[in-house]
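so my prof wants the structure for this chain in the tokens format not the other one, which i didnt know existed until like an hour ago. anyway here's the sequence
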Amino acid sequence: MKKIEIIKKAIISNEEKIAELKTKRSKVEESKTDALSRMYMQYFGDCLVNDDTIVVSDTYCYFKRFDSDYNYHKEMMSISVRPSSWRDDEADKIETSYYSTSANNEFELKRMVLIGKVGQVILDFQDDIIAEYNSTRLSYKDEISNFNKEIWALEESKRDEF
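here's what i got, hopefully its the right format
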């Protein structure tokens, strides 16, 4: 086997390992998102009506409702559980985000009701939500971190060797 073929084979093998690790990491991240979704539904599920949905990312929870005027699920508000500083690992506050409008149609009036209900849940359970959020993230942190380290090591070896 020629040297170039050996190098190509090693590169392909390395890339396959990286892709496999990224797939495994994605599955763990999906599990974390699912766990966070269940947690948010536990606290905010009673605030939702009809076809409302909660869409969860790592630090955000978006509340959406179908708007027949625009024919899509429109974001009504979002909350973000986060630390006071980007240097901190653990969240210690909940931030809300919602838009202001002067429209008085049924959709917007019902959206205001949702905002009030979510606000009440936050007032009543803020410490519990933050604690459960931190616990959930912590339970996945090491596994995701280990995948990241393995991926970075393979990517670094790929650069160094070739």
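also thought this was worth mentioning. Residues 106-161 form the longest helix (56 residues).
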